[in-house]
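User: Fold this, then the next.

Assistant: Folding the first:
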Amino acid sequence: MKTTRKIAARLTGVSEELGVTRAQVALAWLLSKPGVAAPIIGTSREEQLDELLNAVDLTLKPEQIAELETPYKQHPVVGFK
């Protein structure tokens, strides 16, 4: 839980620095990951879709990506093998 709060706080910091929403930063981060070609997003309003579409052109700097990823701890993969 503490790690999640740290990540959320850093997400807020990067979004404020860039003047964009946290959702846009999160999607831009996801798009920066190798092997991610088409993230699946879900929206319930047209405004949300417009917001996320603007994230496609958002490029995070390496130091911003590091800021977001530093507190992250990998979790083991669970499920079917």
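Now the next one, as you asked:
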Amino acid sequence: METNKEKAEQVYQRLQSMYEIMQQTGGTDDVENAIFEFEDCVSEDDYGAWLEKYSYFVW
């Protein structure tokens, strides 16, 4: 079973790809915030909370 960190890393990788595309068209604030907040995660609870907040971007 995947950990929250593993799931969050998958979402994070997709967000990074989206961010690169969105940089060309503008409107990157939400994705940029998600990337910065991911980088601050240190525990499974942090990753779980991050997933709840941002997984809607890719699911």
